[in-house]
Amino acid sequence: xxxxxxxxxxxxxxxxxxxxxxxxxxxxxxxxxxxxxxxxxxxxxxxxxxxxxxxxxxxxxxxxxxxxxxxxxxxxxxxxxxxxxxxxxxxxxxxxxxxxxxxxxxxxxxxxxxx
Length: 115
Known about the structure:
Residues 48-115 form the High potential iron-sulfur proteins family profile domain. Specific class of high-redox-potential 4Fe-4S ferredoxins. Functions in anaerobic electron transport in most purple and in some other photosynthetic bacteria and in at least one genus (Paracoccus) of halophilic, denitrifying bacteria. This is High-potential iron-sulfur protein. One of its GO terms (molecular function) is metal ion binding. This protein is mainly alpha-helical. It has a domain at 47-115: High potential iron-sulphur protein (High-Potential Iron-Sulfur Protein, Chain A, Irregular), CATH 4.10.490.10. Helices cover 32% and strands 3% of the residues. Strands 1-2 form a two-stranded antiparallel sheet. Mean pLDDT is 82; it is low at 32-41.
């Protein structure tokens, strides 16, 4: 004979199983991918293409004194600690100080030489 206590225990156990199962099913195989930031979704045509960069970031590049061609022979983005080399299939690197494409021969006032 089932008691009220047995009924409640079974009901709570089954609801937990249903809730956990529905959570697992909803998380599996979701074909939708999160949208990327508009600045990251556009790949630059050239390293001087700033079409996907916000005006604030362009201003930051100017304040940091970034130029595409270094004025100092041995100081360039390619041998700077802050430079992030281009990924697979990309032609431009980036910088940890600002967003947007960076020339390997570029330069800014925050140049930090590799040791």
